[in-house]
Design brief:
Strand order of the largest sheet: 1-2
Largest sheet: 2 strands, antiparallel
Low-confidence stretches: none
Distance between the termini: 61 Å
Structural class: mainly alpha
Radius of gyration: 24 Å
Strand content: 5-15%
Number of helices: 6
Order of helices and strands: EEHHHHHH
Length: 138
């Protein structure tokens, strides 16, 4: 129970007791049930050579294609390794996609994957879109 003190200039201090509603904090230590994994591994690029080659040799075009498949602006995917239009756009796309489709993982995982092996991460995202029936615009 919290207390507030009200002071009046000409009178002694008056203590008013008012109950404060309790705030409940829930800490999630496990993924909620119903979460699934990615349909393919991050390093399964050779199972989809078209995406693999596009990601490594035509990176920004491929990333732009993925972002438009998701319904995002092309600039979100067009950030590349050197910064670009939307720094962190790849991580945001991956996190949004995971959340939308109940795929296990965390923002930290998305950040690490997008930072250290962006072409593989984008290929995995493309394969997942194919598995879920997203229209291909390539």
């Amino acid at each position: 129970m919290a207390y507030t003190t009200t002071y009046h200039q000409s009178q002694p201090a008056v203590v008013v007791q008012q109950p404060v509603s309790q705030v409940t904090t829930t800490v999630v230590t496990q993924q909620p049930s119903g979460m699934k994994g990615w349909s393919s591994g991050q390093c399964d690029c050779f199972n989809d050579m078209k995406s693999c080659l596009c990601a490594f040799f035509l990176g920004n075009c491929f990333y732009c294609t993925i972002s438009t498949r998701m319904g995002e602006n092309c600039c979100v995917g067009c950030s590349g390794y050197g910064g670009g239009c939307i720094p962190g756009g790849h991580m945001a796309m991956r996190s949004r996609f995971r959340g939308t489709h109940n795929i296990q993982g965390s923002i930290c995982d998305d950040c690490i994957v997008s930072s250290f092996c962006l072409p593989c991460a984008m290929c995995q995202l493309s394969r997942e879109m194919d598995a879920l029936g997203y229209a291909s615009n390539c």
